[in-house]
Amino acid sequence: MSGAALDITNLSVAIRRGPTLLHGVSLHVAPGEVHGLVGMSGAGKSMVGRCLLGILPARVGITGGSIRFAGQELVGLNERDRRRAGAQLALIPQDPLSALNPSRRIVSQMTDVMRLRLGLTQSEATARALAMLHEVHIRDPEGVLHRYPHELSGGMRQRVLIATAFACEPKLIVADEPTTALDVTVQKQILRLIRDLQRSHQTSLLFVTHDLGVVAKICNSVTVLNAGRVVEQAPVAEMFAAPKDPYTQALFAATPRYDQPGGVVA
Amino acid sequence: MTTPGTLRHALTNWRVVTGGVLLLVLLVAAVFAAALSPYDPLDQDLAAQLAPPDWHFGRDAHALGTDSLGRDVLSRLIYGSRVALTVAFVAGILTAVAGTLLGLAAGFFGGWIDALISRAVDIWSSFPPVLLSIILVALIGTGLWSVVAAIVLIDWTRFCRVIRAETLKQRRLDYVDAAVVAGLRPRAILWREIVPNVLPLALVLLTLEMGLAVVIEAILSFVGLSISSDAPSWGGMIAEGREVVHQAPWVLIGAMLVLLATVLGFNVLGDGLKQELDPVLR
């Protein structure tokens, strides 16, 4: 299973009768690549992922541009075709607390999507859910299957969500700040887990984050977004060596350096 | 969220237990009314009008006294629970189903469906409920089923409003987005994802609504718009007792205490269930 290319060109998004949120954003994710999408709060980075997945908030709509994914245009599809195209896409959400339905057991939430997307029977899907839980190194996978979300810790829930995202072998996963809601030690484990799974499954990954440290660890290339506009786009090594745009330079300057005590926190 | 664990935990909550026991006593009284009552509730004993409560448990003793026609108050109270509970359950459940379905539709689909339902709720709730129920019963005729119909027609807005707000809240949570990404159809999202999270709230509202239905029925039988006046109902007994309150207060007091205990039972049970079913409060 290998990733597919994503080509977003000139994507514009606006609130109906309101301000524009994205001004002609273009970006390219190559098959099997991890592409970072960086910017401060409100820059519109989550909006890009939401456009791709078809979960824009009410009264927010795409006003122009195109999203080509796995050879198919996603902008302007009707609801049914959109659902079908979505089979190759998955989401690792920001907040593992609210992304699981509190009143349903883990097993039914994980198997729903597998039965729908892969056409598995309930028992096949349950077996696959268990295998995926093993793959995300969760403690006591059999027990977790039959628990409710509130019985799991934040880190465990995020592992469940990652397992669910990879379970249907999507070609591209949008990870929307998947480590923001977790504490630092768990962050590191989750990040490594996502990277390992991405490599072994050869999935493309659009990694939305505000953390340049995370970008350095996991991404191949990166897009910097400011106020709904792309300010810089480059391979990670290149950008970290020499950020060109003044905004990117400011972002780097604002990142605390743990290797230099007393380093700049602008 | 209704796991065996939740149930076991609920039985340690004094509110759930108190309300449950009160209502269980009432339920037993209603079901076994014939076996439990010492007299026929309609039997008049004109030799024993307004007899005071008599605890000597003899053959002719009236434990809670008699009313102005010599009918046994205790027996009438026991039979009255049938009326009260029938109205509580039938009207309560019908109201809950109607209001919850409309609230779900308004909250989930939004747009013109929401506008239509919400405006109807606004207009509906601008009428004073008791007045509206009296008008309704006057229009469709008196009787127990008219009372039930009146309660459903008045109180569906209570459910609709609350369930709509909860549905709106749930619909914006991330798990709904996750379900959309997973490819679930809107109808599947509504029934499989949202309804289980709204149901506990509907259950709590239902218990409160049942208590309210008992009060509305009592009000309507008090003014003589419910079942016929010789049939035993608590509201009717309060009305009759009011006329003889100086000579025989027990007629009024008995019915009021039973009514009070019933409504208290439903409300306390509702409060307890709210605590038990809300994972945040628990």
Topology:
The complex is a heterodimer of chains A (266) and B (282).
Chain A: E1 6-15, E2 20-29, E3 34-38, H1 45-53, E4 60-69, E5 72-73, H2 79-85, E6 89-92, H3 106-118, H4 122-135, H5 141-145, H6 154-167, E7 172-176, H7 184-201, E8 204-209, H8 212-218, E9 221-226, E10 229-235, H9 236-241, H10 246-253
Helix pairs in contact in A: 3-4, 3-6, 4-6, 6-7
Chain B: H1 4-10, H2 14-31, H3 33-36, H4 73-109, H5 111-124, H6 129-140, H7 144-171, H8 174-181, H9 186-222, H10 234-243, H11 249-277
Structure in words:
The complex is a heterodimer of chains A (266) and B (282). Chain A is of the alpha/beta class. Chain A has a single domain, classed as Rossmann fold (3-Layer(aba) Sandwich). Chain A has ten helices and ten strands. In chain A, the strands form two sheets. A six-stranded mixed β-sheet of chain A has the order 6-7-8-3-9-10, sandwiched between helices. In chain A, strand 7 (172-176), helix 7 and strand 8 form a beta-alpha-beta unit. In chain A, helix 4 packs across helix 6. The longest helix of chain A is centred in the C-terminal third of the chain and has 18 residues, at 184-201. The mean pLDDT of chain A is 88. Chain B is mainly alpha-helical. Chain B has one domain (15-51, 61-74, 81-277): MetI-like fold. Helices cover 72% and strands 0% of the residues of chain B. Chain B is built from eleven helices and no strands. In chain B, helix 2 crosses helix 4 (73-109) and helix 9 packs antiparallel against helix 11. The longest helix of chain B is centred in the N-terminal third of the chain and has 37 residues, at 73-109. Chain B is elongated. The mean pLDDT of chain B is 86. The chains are: A alpha/beta (266), B mainly alpha (282). Chain A binds chain B through residues 53-55, 58, 83-84, 86-87, 89-91, 93-95, 98-104, 112-113, 116-117, 148, 150, 161, and chain B through 1, 3, 110, 173-175, 177-185, 192-193, 196-197, 279.
